[in-house]
Write a structure and sequence with these properties.
The complex is a heterodimer of chains A (450) and B (197). With 450 residues, chain A is an alpha+beta fold. Chain A is built from seven helices and 28 strands. The termini of chain A are far apart. In chain B, a hairpin with a 2-residue loop joins β1 and β2. Classes of the chains: A alpha+beta (450), B mainly alpha (197). At the A-B interface, α2, β10, β14 and β15 of A face α3, α5, α6 and α7 of B.
Chain lengths: 450, 197
Amino acid sequence: MPITTINPASALEGRYPVTAPSLRFWLVPLLLSLLFGYALWQARALEVAPFAVPAPAEGAGDSALDRLLVPEFESRFASTGFHSHVHSSSIAPLPDGGLISVWFAGSREGAEDVNIRTSRYDPATQRWGEEFKLISRETTERVLQRDIRKLGNPVISLAPNGRLWLFYVSVSMGGWAGSAINAMHSDDGGDSWSAPRRLITSPFLNISTLVRNPPVFHRDGSMGLPVYHEFLGKFAEYLYLSPDGRILDKFRISSGNHSLQPAIVPLGGDSALALLRNAGVEHGKVLATYTRDRGRTWSEHVPVAPWNPDSAVAAIGEGDGHILVALNDIADGRFRLTLYQTDETLKNWRQVAVLDESPRPEEWVEPALFRDSLHRKYTAIAEDGEETPGMLAELQRHAEKRACRHGSCTFKYEYPTLIRAANGDFHMVYSWNNTLIKHVVFNHAWVEKG
Amino acid sequence: MTSGEIFGHLTVAALVFMLLPVTRLGLAARGAALLAALGLAFVPVAGLSIGDYTRSYTDDVAITSLLWLLWGVALRVSGRAPTPLRQHRQLALVFAVLALALYPATLGLAAHDPYRLGFSPAPMLAAAWVLCLGLWWMRNALAVALISLATVAYLLDIKDSDNYWDYLVDPLLGLYCCVYLARDGWRRRRGQAAAAL
């Protein structure tokens, strides 16, 4: 017996039948109600846990307190190889007290031979080990079974449960606007890693979500990964992930066409600050926005004091109401990297130190000056045995290839990442003329003295 | 193979088959053409199959897209009449509206992001429930089947995505439906104009 009587004349057009629905007609609405009722029962409202605000530095004993009182500052290189393009580093503490850093390197930005590289810092020897390849374009392609054209922007972070997370972008078509984020994790301090997994963050071909700065954590172990879009608009978002890396929600930090690469600083259980790279077409200042509801909504972003020449910003809370910010505080170029201390209002800025800069306060300098400064800076901080003539020549070749054009060269100290280790030390890595990754470590006393 | 890879290869095979001129062929020949289309999706090129390449650029299609395509394939293989015009129009309208509500805003053309509704989708599920009841009242069983099966797939978590939107609509489906409606509207208007003469 048919469910309904179809009028043959209207069958082709699929018009509604005119006869009354039979009892069997009501079976489908009943089944639909069961299905969607169950789905609604399963779909619980999302609770966003309070931010886990890092505590002030631990003072585990007299020696630890002494360390906090004596200003300390050291610098060294985290990368050990030379590539034509070395960029976008990130750093995380390891459970054993060491450090791990990641960056991308290859013949040029976006080249097929770019891979994600890593090295580890051994606190016993106080040296970075040999760098090696952590993940390549080919491996990503093979695991994901997708055509991958290039890799970039690795971000590494240690979760409160001891799990290391690595996020990086890959592109199947087009430029960086075609990026998607991949996630890997390690439960043994970086000795072994899970296979990369694609995060689905956008409904439009899953393109144009990039990562640059490390995640912040919430008290239940969930994490907030600051990400950004740069396809039709340039705006920042907060990707809210479960402790096992599943996407729970996504909140918009900014809108429009000129803000990228948010750096998040938790201020309290409910509040946090995001500093944004200003990608506007005119010279601009660093942009800032606040959340008071654990990342769900963010205030309208406003410019703050330092200049931002469309370059990455790093920030971290000191735990006492102060915030450290590393950035290129210049209108044009990336030839000076400065560390500032500010407070939660972002109205008071104190320059702590200029971490690296060109010998002349201008973007372009003559090759001889570039070469001389490069040699002096490199030999000043290179580890014993690294500063051979061959190494210097190699450094110069790669740096000049990247930095010199039409008889002039430019220094680039950019893309900083700032973290704080459990012993209270601050660690920062950044791109050193796109040729090496530089690591600086300093303590609270040095910041206060600066 | 992951579910995404399986769906990717099925999508390529179904699309290729739907483009083939098989309506005048016999049942066996149509079946052979379908198998050939499926085989084509698995042809390796430099380490990846054609299905993998397609999926690389389109990302995984929505469950509704795949099921609609497979329904079309089933009708073609069996030689049955295509989906009635009115049902097709209703389906196209539903998915075109979903696509237009989602993509421009989520790509940054609006301050709000509708995509995030799909991560905690209670309001979307309630809307889909009402939509399905309405479509069933209009006797559009295919539309009801597509949306409800996509919801079952979401509950079973068979896609990589954690977002309900990705089970309901994808850019290619949205584009197809918008183009279909535009073409259909133009044809209807032209038909009315001809009838008035």
